[in-house]
Design a protein that fits this description.
Bound molecules: ligand TLP
Strand content: 15-25%
Helix content: 40-55%
CATH superfamily of the largest domain: Type I PLP-dependent aspartate aminotransferase-like (Major domain)
Strand order of the largest sheet: 2-10-9-8-7-3-4
Number of domains: 2
Distance between the termini: 23 Å
Shape: globular
CATH topology of the largest domain: Aspartate Aminotransferase, domain 2
Length: 347
C-alpha cells in the first residue's frame, strides 16, 4: 500500500498527542467493573453535567454506546424509527436485529433530518398485526449526509411528538461537539430533547478510545448491566478515560479549525471540472465530493488519490468523503487540492 501522507478517511484516525499521552500517564485508576475507577467516574460525571443528564456510562465505542441504548430502551419484536442514512442502520453491522431483536424502520430524510409528518405516520397504531414502535433515533451531526447539523427546532419538534406518544428518543451524538462548535448552541440544549445521548471521544475530539452514553439514572443503571453482557465492562479503564477528559478540556474549541479546513477544501474543489460539491452539506468537518467525471468514478478516483498519498474513502459509487481533523493542517488541505487538481486535469 502506498504511504499515506494526508489521511482524510475519517476523524477516527486521529492519534493521541504527546500532551494527551502525558496526561494519561498520570491517570488515577481502579477497577471500573466495581465502580472504583476515579478517572472513569470523573469522566462520567463531566459528561452527564455537560449534557444535563442524571448519569453517564463510559463504553469502548460509539457502536456499543448506540447498541446499549437500543437494548435498554426496547423490547424484542419492537420497531425502531430512524433516518435511512444513519450510522445505526448502515454501519453497525445489523446489530439492532442481532443484539436487541428489533427491526429498523428507515425513513427518508433531507440532509439527515427526518420529516415530522413521516415520523408521525410511521409510528405504529396499537394493533395485533403491527410491531410496536419502541424507539426513535436521530444523528447529530449526520455522518452520511456530510456532517450536517440537525437543526434544534427539528429536534424540539420531534421531541414534542415522541413525548406525546410516549416513545423514547435516542441521539447518536458521536459528533455532537462539532454541532456545538458550528452553531454555538450548548450541548445541554441539544441533549435536553433526547432521552439518551451517545457522545464519541475517538472522532474529532482526538482520544484513542471511547464513547459515553448518558441519560436518566435508572436508564444508565440498566445500561451498565448491558455493557457487562456485551463484554464492555473494563477494569483500569481510567487510562483510557483520562484521554477523554483531556479531549474535553483541550480539543473542543479547536474543532472550528477542522470546520474551516473542510470549507476551504470544499470551496477549492467545487471549481474543478468533474467534481460537484453541495455547499449546503458543508457545515462541519466533512466534505462529500460527488464525482461526475468521464474517466473516474468514486472508487477509481479514490485509488488514484491513494497512489499520490491522499487517502479518502468512496462512500458509494458517486461520492468520496473527506474528513478533516486535528492531524490535518491547512497546508495539507492545500496539498490535497493540488493532488485532486492534477488528477482531474491529467485525464
Ligand atoms: N463512524 C465511522 C465509520 O463507522 C463510518 C466514521 O469513519 O465516520 N455514530 C456515528 C455517527 C459515527 O460516525 C460512528 C463512526 C459511530 C457512531 C460508531 O463509532 P465507533 O467507530 O466508535 O463504533
Amino acid at each position: 500500500m502506498p504511504r499515506i501522507t494526508i489521511d482524510l478517511r475519517s476523524d477516527t484516525v486521529t492519534k493521541p498527542s504527546q500532551a494527551m499521552r502525558n496526561f494519561i500517564a498520570h491517570a488515577d485508576v481502579g477497577d471500573d467493573v466495581y465502580g472504583e475507577d476515579p478517572t472513569v467516574n470523573l469522566l462520567e460525571e463531566r459528561v452527564a453535567d455537560l449534557l444535563g443528564k442524571e448519569a453517564a456510562l463510559y463504553v469502548p465505542s460509539g457502536t456499543m454506546s448506540n447498541q446499549i441504548a437500543i437494548k435498554t430502551h426496547t423490547q424484542p419484536g419492537q420497531e425502531v424509527i430512524c433516518e435511512e442514512n444513519c450510522h445505526i442502520f448502515n454501519y453497525e453491522a445489523g446489530a439492532p436485529a442481532f443484539l436487541s431483536h428489533v427491526q429498523m424502520r428507515p425513513l427518508h430524510g433531507e440532509y439527515g433530518v427526518l420529516n415530522i409528518k413521516d415520523v408521525e405516520n410511521a409510528i405504529r397504531a396499537d394493533n395485533l398485526h403491527l410491531p410496536p414502535t419502541g424507539l426513535i433515533c436521530v444523528e447529530n451531526t449526520h455522518n452520511r449526509a456530510g456532517g450536517t447539523v440537525y437543526p434544534l427546532d427539528n429536534i424540539s419538534e420531534l421531541a414534542n411528538l415522541t413525548a406525546q406518544k410516549g416513545i423514547p428518543l435516542h441521539l447518536d451524538g458521536a459528533r455532537l461537539m462539532n454541532a456545538v462548535v458550528a452553531t454555538g448552541i450548548p450541548a445541554k440544549d441539544w441533549a435536553s430533547y433526547a432521552d439518551s445521548v451517545s457522545l464519541c471521544f475517538s472522532k474529532g475530539l482526538g482520544a484513542p478510545v471511547g464513547s459515553v452514553l448518558s441519560g436518566p439514572r435508572d436508564f444508565i443503571q440498566r445500561a451498565r448491566k448491558y455493557r457487562k453482557i456485551f463484554g464492555g465492562g473494563m477494569r483500569q479503564a481510567g487510562i483510557l478515560a483520562a484521554a477523554c477528559i483531556f479531549a474535553l478540556d483541550n480539543n473542543v474549541n479547536r474543532l472550528k479549525e477542522d470546520h474551516e479546513n473542510a470549507r476551504l477544501l470544499a470551496s477549492e474543489l467545487k471549481n474543478l471540472a468533474g467534481i460537484f460539491i453541495d455547499m449546503k452539506q458543508v457545515q462541519t468537518n466533512m466534505v462529500m465530493i460527488y464525482i461526475r467525471h468521464p474517466k473516474y468514478n468514486s472508487e477509481t478516483l479514490s485509488r488514484a488519490l491513494l497512489s499520490k498519498g491522499l487517502a479518502a474513502n468512496a462512500v458509494d459509487s458517486e461520492r468520496i468523503r473527506a474528513v478533516t481533523h486535528l492531524n490535518i493542517s491547512k497546508d495539507q488541505i492545500l496539498q490535497a487540492v493540488e493532488i485532486f487538481t492534477k488528477l482531474m486535469k491529467e485525464s
